[in-house]
User: Fold this.
Amino acid sequence: CKLQGGAGHCTAADVRTHELGQCLKDSDCRLRMGLACCESCDAGSGEVVAINVNREEEIQHLACGSETIGCPECAPQYPDGAEAVCTAGQCEVV
Assistant:
């Protein structure tokens, strides 16, 4: 995944090892369709990732920059049976 870095530059980020996915327990984690500025509504249009529930705003800032983006109001369609769990201090999809 690529997140926007300083001065409008994108940098690679692996949420499986990034602080955005750190956790202490399963309830710290949630599923998200991709790490683009807006979460995808369609299960087929992005990779499902697991993030810390309290880091959504930070992800949006990193991915969107400082501009205000109107994301679609829809419920993401996660793959059947997918769950976000905390494993060894990192959120992951199982």
User: Anything to note?
Assistant: The mean pLDDT is 80. The radius of gyration is 13 Å. Residues 8 and 72 are 23 Å apart (CA to CA).
